[in-house]
Amino acid sequence: MKRPASNDRDLLRAAAADLAEAAACLANGRGGTVVVGVRDDMHGPEAIVGVPRDIDVDDIRRRIWQLTSPPLVVDIEDRTVHDRRVLLIVVETGFDLVRVNGMALVNAVAHRDYRHPEPVVVEHSPSRLVVTSPGDLVFGVTEDNLLTHVSKPRNRCLIEALRVLRLAERAGTGVDPPPPPK
Predict the structure, then answer these.
(1) Tens digits of per-residue pLDDT, 50-107?
(2) What are the extents of the domains in the chain?
(3) In what order do the strands lie in the sheet with 32-36?
(4) CATH class of the 11-91 domain in this structure
């Protein structure tokens, strides 16, 4: 990114959509780092143009979170290189929503309480996926036995349709437990 002109101090703030898009692309791939404050058409110390000190890192992080769907949480490292400020937006590999936690998204849709009008909400960061389904758990199912309890679908027709479409496995198989942390 080029150094903002003195009459356009909001250039980096205005570029939040581009930064969010770059972060989402990296998350959907193998992760990586977006370097802000270095020109890509030059080499050596002269390529480091810097980022204005009044740019708030938390504001950039918040804008990336707001502009991505599902919201993406990134780490931003604030560094000084050759007496100039450089930002490293570190993006870890995102989630493959089809396989994360077995069938988290399909289960949220399949087992939700449709008496509640709220949507299923999916939020993710590079290290965490949260799927929130409206309504309470079916009687007998608790957060403690969710992974081991026999499936108790609210709508057997919906479950059968998902099975026929090969979006869900046979009833009663539950979900795979999450992998152990690395």
Answers:
(1) 998 888 888 888 888 888 877 777 889 999 999 999 999 988 776 554 455 546 777 7
(2) 11-91, 104-164
(3) 32-36, 84-91, 75-81
(4) alpha beta
